[in-house]
Amino acid sequence: MSHPDHPDNAGPAEGEEFEPDYRFTLANERTFLAWVRTSLALLAAAVAVVQLVPEFSIPGARHILGGLLSLMSLLAAATGLRRWQQVDYAIRRGLPLPRLRGPRILTAGLLLVGLFALALVVTNLAAG
Hints:
Elements: H1 22-52, H2 61-91, H3 102-127
């Protein structure tokens, strides 16, 4: 099997590791850092909701919303790390890139947080 990134262009043996074009590893690192930035933004939002947002008409709702945002932050960080490891493994062996469920789960979680926040705002407006 020929591989354009393998030094002798003959391709690695099954499971053999090789040093890929540095642009691939740097792109993988940039993607990982994007996941970390997303995680930090979600964590900052969680702190802001708990510390800065006035109490909603539903007792404890602020803390629930902050907890959900914190959970999404942890998920983003863990997904980013797992993705970085899996992609690094694949590119060093000339394997197809893996598919992850993490982005779908994160999106579903963010939709849930958004719906919960919208419900809180509507409830606050209705309460007065």
